[in-house]
UniProtKB/TrEMBL annotation:
<comment type="similarity">
    <text>Belongs to the glycosyltransferase 1 family. Bacterial/plant glycogen synthase subfamily.</text>
</comment>
<feature type="domain" description="Glycosyl transferase family 1">
    <location>
        <begin position="288"/>
        <end position="440"/>
    </location>
</feature>
<comment type="pathway">
    <text>Glycan biosynthesis; glycogen biosynthesis.</text>
</comment>
<dbReference type="GO" id="GO:0009011">
    <property type="term" value="F:alpha-1,4-glucan glucosyltransferase (ADP-glucose donor) activity"/>
</dbReference>
<dbReference type="InterPro" id="IPR013534">
    <property type="entry name" value="Starch_synth_cat_dom"/>
</dbReference>
<keyword id="KW-0320">Glycogen biosynthesis</keyword>
<dbReference type="Pfam" id="PF00534">
    <property type="entry name" value="Glycos_transf_1"/>
</dbReference>
<keyword id="KW-0328">Glycosyltransferase</keyword>
<keyword id="KW-0808">Transferase</keyword>
<dbReference type="InterPro" id="IPR011835">
    <property type="entry name" value="GS/SS"/>
</dbReference>
<protein>
    <recommendedName>
        <fullName>Glycogen synthase</fullName>
        <ecNumber>2.4.1.21</ecNumber>
    </recommendedName>
</protein>
<feature type="domain" description="Starch synthase catalytic">
    <location>
        <begin position="4"/>
        <end position="234"/>
    </location>
</feature>
<dbReference type="InterPro" id="IPR001296">
    <property type="entry name" value="Glyco_trans_1"/>
</dbReference>
<comment type="function">
    <text>Synthesizes alpha-1,4-glucan chains using ADP-glucose.</text>
</comment>
<dbReference type="Pfam" id="PF08323">
    <property type="entry name" value="Glyco_transf_5"/>
</dbReference>
<feature type="binding site">
    <location>
        <position position="16"/>
    </location>
    <ligand>
        <name>ADP-alpha-D-glucose</name>
    </ligand>
</feature>
Length: 479
């Protein structure tokens, strides 16, 4: 087995704020059949305290970017885990990136530079007993890791995966001296980025290969609308950029085995979803009805198109639809959905926050899931929807475009449609898509065919794992 190191700021089920954790948690299993043994490096957050206490110290730093730190060996499922135990950086109340009020930690520049430095040393022969052929860095929090490998003279190949290019890790350039990087990296060819430090930019510059989480997103980020200032670098390195759609873990997301569902089901027992539908109605205070239940499981942000959806809610209700929303985010958007629920009691139910079990129930009981994102690198909720027979209604962007087959006339006639895809994220476009969903739902035989087509699609990690393995093999074969 070829040893690789995966460096990330979160991994399911240990710590999760979004889809990044699901990907990092699933990759080790997906790569094992292809001859790769994955060790994951994570920060030592309080959520990992028990693992740290029970683990074995394999390395100590008296001074890792100004703090004492150690590496603790533990397990992530059946795979090795290394935890960067640096209490001064990570043992604090709040989330992985910010305090209990949601404000970013002022020292995030140091926290995640330390994580990346540890990854760079691990893959450059600086930690006794640890050898890796390849380093795989995920998002800006690990973005400096490929730069450290280069600075330390490491021979390991490096891969930088962009899960969302909008989050770049930009910090004051005055911090450069504390990073322990050579002076030449304080430039456009290193970590300098528009007069600041760019952690994601540094990874994109230094890595041997760049991946995004869908083929369409890999193309989109070459233009200013989606590249967020990094499009020039992406174009310059275009021959190193590829897109690999995320998978989902059937051990976690399977309606036939999901303990969060009152009634489990598969393609042969789809009628059992009715019990879950009733549970959704009860949980969100929705009056029973024959019209479709739409759901949203999302961050409530501009990127996700939630402002546009808020403008369409009166129309959704007027068409006979109902909405069950689970999410949190921008306070004005939270207030807009709460106000809509007050205007339409029994038709719109809102839960502010996140609940993993409730998200499973919504996929297993709602009729359709709304995902009107302005940009979506991959998206996982539409994949969960497909697996659970919860028909996705999505914008044509990124991974949404790559994974959902629009219910146009030809696709419906061929029996391959799996959802509804709309162009543009405007009230008119989304209202029209919702109207299409309501009309299709009224034709239950056709709606069921869409559900079954989605459930038949294979979005497990089998194919995605093979593609990552092919990428690794190609890199390792290069001189």
């Amino acid at each position: 087995m070829t040893p690789i190191l995966s460096v990330a700021s979160e991994a399911y089920p240990l710590v999760k704020t979004g889809g990044l954790a699901d990907v990092v948690g699933a990759l080790p299993d997906a790569l094992t059949p292809h001859g790769f043994a994955t060790t994951t490096l994570l920060p030592g957050y309080p959520a990992l305290a028990d693992l740290i206490a029970q683990g074995e110290t394999v390395h100590r730093w008296p001074d890792l970017l100004g703090v004492e730190a150690r590496l603790v060996a533990a397990q992530l499922g059946e795979h090795p885990l290394l935890v960067l135990d640096a209490p001064a950086l990570f043992a604090r109340a709040g989330g992985p990136y910010g305090d209990t009020t949601g404000r970013d930690w002022d020292d995030n520049w140091r926290r995640f530079a330390a994580l990346a430095r540890a990854g760079g040393e691990l893959t450059s022969g600086h930690v006794a007993g640890q050898r890796f052929a390849l380093l795989h860095a995920h998002d800006w929090q690990a973005g400096l890791a490929p730069a450290y490998v280069r600075a330390l003279g490491g021979r390991a190949k490096t891969v930088m995966t962009v899960h969302n290019i909008a989050f770049q890790g930009r910090f004051d350039r005055a911090h450069f001296a504390a990073l322990g990087l050579p002076d030449w990296m304080n430039s456009i060819h290193g970590v300098e980025y528009y007069g600041a430090l760019g952690y994601l930019k540094a990874g994109l510059e230094a890595a041997d290969a760049i991946t995004t989480v869908s083929p369409t997103y890999a193309r989109e980020i070459r233009v200013p609308e989606f590249g967020m200032g990094l499009e020039g670098l992406i174009v310059d390195r275009a021959d190193m950029v590829s897109g690999i759609v995320n998978g989902i873990d059937p051990a976690v997301w399977s309606p036939a085995n999901d303990a969060a569902l009152p009634a489990r089901y598969d393609a042969d027992t789809l009628d059992a979803r009715a019990a879950n539908r009733a549970a959704v109605e009860a949980a969100f205070g929705l009056a029973p009805g024959s019209g479709p239940i739409f759901t949203v499981v999302s961050r409530l942000t501009w990127q996700k198109g939630m402002d546009v959806l808020a403008d369409c809610l009166d129309a959704l209700v007027a068409m006979g639809g109902r909405l069950a929303l689970l999410g949190s985010g921008d306070k004005p958007l939270e207030a807009a959905f709460i106000a809509a629920a007050a205007r339409h009691p029994g038709r719109i139910g809102v839960r502010i926050g996140y609940d993993e079990a409730l998200s499973h129930l919504l996929q297993g009981g709602a009729d359709a899931i709304l995902i009107p994102s302005r940009f979506e690198p991959c998206g996982l909720t539409q994949l969960y929807g497909l697996a659970y027979g919860c028909v996705p209604v999505v914008a044509r962007t990124g991974g949404l475009a790559d994974t959902v087959i629009d219910a146009n006339q030809a696709a419906l006639a061929a029996g391959v449609a799996t959802g509804i895809v709309h162009d543009g994220v405007t009230p008119d476009a989304l209202t029209h898509a919702i109207a299409r969903a309501v009309a299709l739902h009224a034709d239950q035989p056709r709606w069921r065919r869409m559900q079954l087509s989605g459930m038949a699609a294979d979005f497990s990690w089998n194919e995605s794992g093979r593609r990552y393995a092919d990428l690794y093999h190609n890199l390792l074969e290069r001189p």
